[in-house]
Here is the input.
Amino acid sequence: MVTYLILGLGFLGLFLGGDWLVKGASGIAARFGVAPMIIGLTIVGFGTSTPELLVSVTAALGGQPGIAVGNVVGSNIANILLILGLAAIIAPVAVAFIDVRRDLFWMIGATIVLPVLFWSGAVGVIEGAVLVTALGTYLFVSLRNASQAPADISQNSSLARSGLSLLAGLVAVVLGAHFLVQSATIIARDFGVSEAMIGLSIVAIGTSLPELATTVMAVIRGQRDIAVGNVIGSNIFNILGILGITALITPIPLAPRFFAIDTPILIAITLGVVLVIWKLGKINRTTGILMLAGYAAYIVGTAKL
Here is the structure.
């Protein structure tokens, strides 16, 4: 009974935290005249990737490199297919390609460099330093023109209130994800679910729950720029930041499947979503349903490998 209570509290923390995070982020954007997309790409996108960072570093230091790398690749796949797909089903997500083309190109670049990194069978300190340097460059480029915000953004937000809301939301989604993953794992074991399936489903999706909660709440509140920016920023940070920082701490040996299977799938869906945004300028409900179906197929197929 206690486990189920913790599970419920985890869900509550995620969605209350997602709401507070969106309110705080949009308030800060309004206060400083920063476009919501930039806030989504940086503060929200990177902040909601905190669980992935903690899991990958802990796994690498604990001698579980497969979890460290699988967490990054799996979370990026979940961000696109599961999170954007679910958001589009709730409400079609309009995305002007011209507004996010630079960030989409960064996301593509970070993704297609993975086979180069994985070719040698390990990601070492030098590769980690290159990735972290690239992340710093991306942040500089993104924030350099951050004040170019739409003219109709309200300036009535309290900075202290918005900052507190953003911080409280970030803490709530991280703690909510932790409690949800831990309790769900216990429940799954009680029902005889294998360790492999727990890792592939609960842990992989669990570290993406902050992005899911924040993106869904952003769509519900009409802050679609924050929703899209959150996913793009998170995917960039997962590769350049999390993989880079983890490799700087300790070299990461790689299982062959990441080079042969998972990375090509990630590249394909990354190019696919960019193509949809370029051609359609939105992710509609039909596309969202197809994305969710694709994610289900990936999870089922991966479980058999």
